[in-house]
């Protein structure tokens, strides 16, 4: 054990005797307490946002199923714009591998009420295409008015 301690830089090695400096001890204690509080706040914040995002994700998927009348398992959901309360959910309009059929995408906003969110617009996507503005068609609501869907 002494060999390992000898390899440490001098500032990190245990002292031969404890220094009697109350101010230094108080500063070290305050720094350690501040670090502990910061880590606790960060951990709580991460858990809170993870749980909240999971609830919104489930509500988005349920809203897509309710609005389209299709009970599909593979409904993608995510943020349309980072840090904005507007989300998007897409899934095939008929059974098949995700993206292999025409997709219906819905834009949702606001809180979940009764497990569902408010649909403010949407569009369709052709099979085997990415969700890019140039591939969107049959837009309605906010998708059309905000030019998320230039093809109308």
Characteristic terms for this protein:
single chain, 152 residues, alpha+beta, 5-stranded antiparallel sheet, 3 helices, 5 strands, 38% helix, 25% strand
Give an overview in words.
With 152 residues, the protein is α+β, with helices and mostly antiparallel strands. Helix content is 38%, strand content 25%. It is built from three helices and five strands, in the order ααβββββα. The chain has helices at residues 2-7, 22-68, 142-145; strands spanning 76-79, 86-92, 103-113, 116-125, 136-141. It has a five-stranded antiparallel β-sheet with strand order 1-2-3-4-5. The longest helix has 47 residues, at 22-68. The relative contact order is 0.09. The model has no long low-confidence stretch (mean pLDDT 80).
Helix % is 25-40%
Beta-strand segment tally: 5
Oligomer: single chain
Biggest sheet strand order reads 1-2-3-4-5
Rg, rounded, reads: 27 Å
Structural class: alpha+beta
- Through-space gap between termini: 73 Å
Major beta-sheet overview: 5 strands, antiparallel
Note the total helix count.
Answer: 3
Q: Let me know the average pLDDT.
A: 80
Helix and strand string, N-terminal first?
A: HHEEEEEH
Strand content: 25-35%
Shape call: elongated
Instruction: List the uncertain runs.
Output: none
List the helices and strands and how they pair.
Blueprint: H1 2-7, H2 22-68, E1 76-79, E2 86-92, E3 103-113, E4 116-125, E5 136-141, H3 142-145
Summary?
With 152 residues, this protein is α+β, with helices and mostly antiparallel strands. It has 3 helices and 5 strands, in the order ααβββββα. The mean pLDDT is 80.
């Amino acid at each position: 054990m002494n060999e390992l301690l000898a390899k440490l830089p001098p500032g990190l090695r245990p002292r031969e005797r404890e220094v009697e400096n109350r101010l230094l001890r108080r500063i070290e204690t305050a720094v350690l307490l501040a670090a502990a509080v910061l880590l606790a706040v960060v951990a709580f914040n991460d858990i809170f946002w993870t749980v909240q995002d999971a609830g919104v994700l489930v509500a988005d998927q349920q809203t897509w199923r309710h609005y389209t009348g299709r009970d599909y398992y593979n409904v993608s959901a995510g943020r349309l714009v980072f840090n904005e309360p507007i989300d998007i959910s897409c899934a095939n309009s008929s059974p098949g591998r995700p993206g292999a059929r025409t997709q219906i995408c819905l834009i949702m906003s606001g809180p979940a009420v009764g497990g569902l969110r408010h649909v403010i617009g949407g569009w369709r996507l052709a099979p085997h295409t990415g969700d890019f503005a140039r591939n969107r068609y049959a837009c309605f609501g906010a998708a059309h008015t905000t030019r998320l869907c230039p093809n109308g």
